[in-house]
Request: fold
Amino acid sequence: MQSRVDRQLRALALAKACAACGARVRTIGHLTGLPPREALRLLFPDRLAVPRGRSPDSPEWYHGANLLHRAEASIVVALYRRLRDADFPAGEALVGAYRHYVGICQPPHRISFDRAFDLAAHTDGLWLTDTRSFSLVTCPTCHSEFLAAFGSVARSNDHCPFCKLVQRYGTDPRVQGAFPVQPLATPSAEQLGMLVLLQRSFGSSTGQAGTSSASESQP
Ligand SMILES: [Zn+2]
Reply:
């Protein structure tokens, strides 16, 4: 059982992490239970830095969004799902997934933290709504997970944003910019040194085996 102070500390740590990801006060309130006035006072001493604008509404948005938005939305929710499946609480899973998304996708990031929150809420029927609007389905062709209308089954890759990105990659500079070809990792000096050592020890052990068998075969 968490004590009251533990729960409050957890809520504050989560609120701070959400604010660092660019969350709106309303989103922070939903995720942590922190009253809006308290969130404003603690997290946004500079009132000009308070994120503003209309809250996202993803169930309509997603199906009309362009390919890159749909791909990145699917990446965020797939990362969130993995952390939820590993038993992380929903709020922490969302922050972890969002940070991971920012780390692996090229800027500009098309999915804001509030959008990620809204997508996860409408996938799990959580925080904002009891209704599930999305399912995370697996493409039968490329095996990527992508968001689809709730209850859909992916029988083909017709709606898979990743298959479409691959088809478009050669001719669309925007797609190339969003998912640049990563250079192959060049082994570091340490890794090369390890390789040499491994080869030597492997070579010397076979050498020894060779020597002993040679000596055995000697009359
Ligand atoms: Zn696919």
